[in-house]
Amino acid sequence: MKTDGIYLGASFALSGPVEKLDATRLPVRGDLAHIRLAGTVFVPHYVAPITYRSGAQGATLLKTPGGETLATLEPGAGFDVLDIAGTHAWGEVTGGGIVGYITLTQLEASV
C-alpha cells in the first residue's frame, strides 16, 4: 500500500552480489538512475527524463564530458536527458540506447 509516496508493508532484502551494470547501456550512475530502473537498482535519486533533440548538425555522444566518442547522433535524433551539469547533459539515446554525455550546445528542446 502506498501512502504519501511511501510504500507501507514493502519488503526489500539483500539477496547476494549484484552483477556489474553496463554503464553504456543502462542509465544509472552512483547518484541517480532513470525512473524505469526503480526497484532494480539502488541509488539516492530516480529521474524521469526530458527528451531533447540533436541539433541541425547532429550531436556527439561522449563517454565522459570532453572524453571518448561513443556515437554520433543524426540531426533530430532523440536524447533523453537525466542530468545537466556545466556544459553537458547526461542521459541516453531515446528508446533505451547508448548512455553518455552531449554538449548542451548540440541539443534543442523537443517540441
Description:
The protein is mostly beta strands and 111 residues long. It contains no helices and 11 strands. It has strands spanning 2-3, 6-7, 32-34, 45-47, 50-54, 59-62, 69-73, 78-85, 88-93, 99-103, 107-109. The strands form 4 sheets. It has a 5-stranded antiparallel β-sheet with strand order 10-9-8-5-11, with no helix packed on it. A two-stranded antiparallel ribbon has the order 1-2.
Set down the secondary structure blueprint.
Elements: E1 2-3, E2 6-7, E3 32-34, E4 45-47, E5 50-54, E6 59-62, E7 69-73, E8 78-85, E9 88-93, E10 99-103, E11 107-109
How would you briefly describe this protein structure?
The chain is mainly beta and about 110 residues long. The protein has strands spanning about 1-5, 5, 30-35, 45, 50-55, 60, 70-75, 80-85, 90-95, 100-105, 105-110.
